[in-house]
Amino acid sequence: MRSKRIRGLYAVTPETSDSDWLCARVEAVLRGGARILQYRSKSVDVRRRGEQAGRLRGLCAAAGALLIINDDVALARELGADGVHLGRDDMDVADARTALGSQVLIGVSCYDSLTRARGAQSEGADYVAFGGFFPSEVKPGAVRAPLELLRGARAVVDLPVVAIGGITPDNGGALVEAGADALAAISALFQVSDSCLAAQAFTALFQVEDEPLSIQCDR
To answer: Domains of the chain, with CATH numbers?
Structure first.
């Protein structure tokens, strides 16, 4: 199943109109081991969104990574993206599935709600995301989710579980131990001096014992 590829570091892009800077950082994050990238942009105009997303599509394809589009089902369809991520106020799963087809991944934000996760699974979602688990500069007013929620999710859904919200390589290990299949991060990847090394640190949290990391980060 394609949803089994939702594992490891799940990079989410920051807001920026600087497409060259964004692509350079994304390339570094992919080089550091991310195999899932969500393009999330709420502030740039439609033309630039299309331009940025198209360039990121090429970078992800070259790296063998999934490209997920936040909110915008039409853009995901236009690009032939690997998936779309839906929040509380976005299109529902059934309509997104009709628009995108059976092969496209659909993720759903469930915040701190196991009930919402159960509903997402019944509607045909491919993965669910919970959070925020820690204070976040990107969403300072976000609902806070307890660590125990990840353990509880295992009892109610049979889908990959993504954790998000203020996650860093230092605090992410506890979330993986609690049951997160993937860790989503923005600031800890893009607001740092070396995005490749930051991604490598996240990727190491999912490393199988005795499996060497084959990552090259330019210093």
So the answer is: 2-204 (3.20.20.70)
